[in-house]
Amino acid sequence: MKDFADNDTIAAIATPPGEGGIGIVRISGENAGFVADKFFKPVKKGFSVIDFKTHQAVYGKVIDDVGNVIDEALCIAMWAPNSYTKENVVEIQSHGGSLVVHRILELALSHGARMAEPGEFTKRAFLNGRLDLSQAQSVMDIIQARTDASLRMAAGHLQGAFSEEIKSMRHDILEIIAHLEASIDFPEDDIEDVAKQEAEEKICKIKDRIDEILKTFHTGRILREGLMTAIIGKPNVGKSSLLNALLREERAIVTDIPGTTRDSLEEYANIKGVPLRIIDTAGIRETQDKVEQIGVEKSVSYLQRADLILALFDISRPLSTEDEEIINMLEGKKGIILLTKKDLPKEIDVDDLKDKLHGDFKYIYISTLNKEGLKDLEDEIVSRVYSGNSGQAEGCFVSNLRQAEALKAAKKHLEECLNTIKMDMAEDFIVIDVRSAWEKLGEITGDTVDEDIIDQIFSQFCIGK
């Protein structure tokens, strides 16, 4: 399945851009040791990189082509197949200056390596059988995880928890195919009806398992990408105060002057393991300020696209025309209505507000001044995100659209298969649909996926991973 030419040797910087304590240049391929040996010289004389024991750090110096010392560094060789890519891998660990690591990379490229493409190290790990496609995709999810729950899900995928569930279903489907084909090949044994009955029972169980997994997609996608949350309300209703309370830091400017937030602020908050992608929007009101007008337009746009709406109403002030406008915008939507400034005397009829709001809303009283109601808000957010999946391990959640679409397609083929059985059609027709479901599940692990899809997936990775 390998698609890289002649097992060529690749190199890239494996650490983030900028300055740091350590910078790593990674080299992978059959000639990785020979490439590194051209410019890394161990302190121990007469000792070359290709003589290194696997997985042992060796101290030495990086030397350019005219003998100048670039840096002192450690070199670690990881010989095939005991490496990330299952190829020969050499890592040079130098000081983390941007110039230093780029000079080392240039030396590797000048001595026979080529620049790695985005995600090519992980792609080679997949093509060489070290990881399946679901595990490979989880590598970037681990890098990008923003909460413990996100990390647990990504780590579970990397360890193969999700893949094992998919492989188990594919194994069960193969057994169904084998029994059906046996009844086709040996009609004299009169096992046709038994094979169909057993196939129907097993297919129903597999379809139910797919349904249970698909129920986790909402949660899995949020843990992976974050819950896009729009905080909306009229000016000076407490939006920025809420943002600061959720972030547990003074991120947004808070004053009693209306219109302080003229643009949208976007931050990530960790709400009991749920990554909230919070957008603090400009206060919605009529204004002559062109900059603020743009901010209000963006607020309305975010309201339409948000996964979760937090709409704020100040109960210490009567409903205004601005509140009425927001009420109209919320028509038919769902979210959480936050009745702010609970610590002040109530000036609005909350029942009247509820009558005006037509949608699926939860009402929570809060006061960001004394932190009242914030725990109730956090509990409601977590409840909405997990929605019945709290008892399941995050490592088995569906985490991206490609996986979900493959599962839905497999389920559809199984449903068609059940219809075929009910119509008492021949086993050949049943096998066609069952095999199609098996192939769709294989797209998740990469066993039956097209090369173009593989290239597209790994192109989204960073270079060096």
From TrEMBL:
Give the binding site residues for Mg(2+): 240, 261
Residues binding GTP, per UniProt: 236-241, 255-261, 280-283
Task: Give the location in the cell.
Answer: Cytoplasm
Q: Keyword check for Mitochondrion, yes or no.
A: no
Q: Which residues bind (6S)-5-formyl-5,6,7,8-tetrahydrofolate?
A: 26, 91, 130, 465
Tell me which residues make up the TrmE-type G domain: 226-386
PROSITE patterns, A to Z:
G_TRME
- Name the keywords, alphabetized: Cytoplasm, GTP-binding, Hydrolase, Magnesium, Metal-binding, Nucleotide-binding, Potassium, tRNA processing
Q: Does the keyword Metal-binding apply?
A: yes
Cite the CDD domains for this sequence. trmE, TrmE_N
Q: Which GO terms describe its biological process?
A: tRNA methylation; tRNA wobble uridine modification
Give the chief site where it resides: cytoplasm
> What Enzyme Commission number(s) appear in the record?
3.6.-.-
Could you say which protein family the record assigns here? Belongs to the TRAFAC class TrmE-Era-EngA-EngB-Septin-like GTPase superfamily. TrmE GTPase family.
Q: How does it assemble?
A: Homodimer. Heterotetramer of two MnmE and two MnmG subunits.
- What protein does this entry describe? tRNA modification GTPase MnmE
* Annotated source species: Megamonas hypermegale
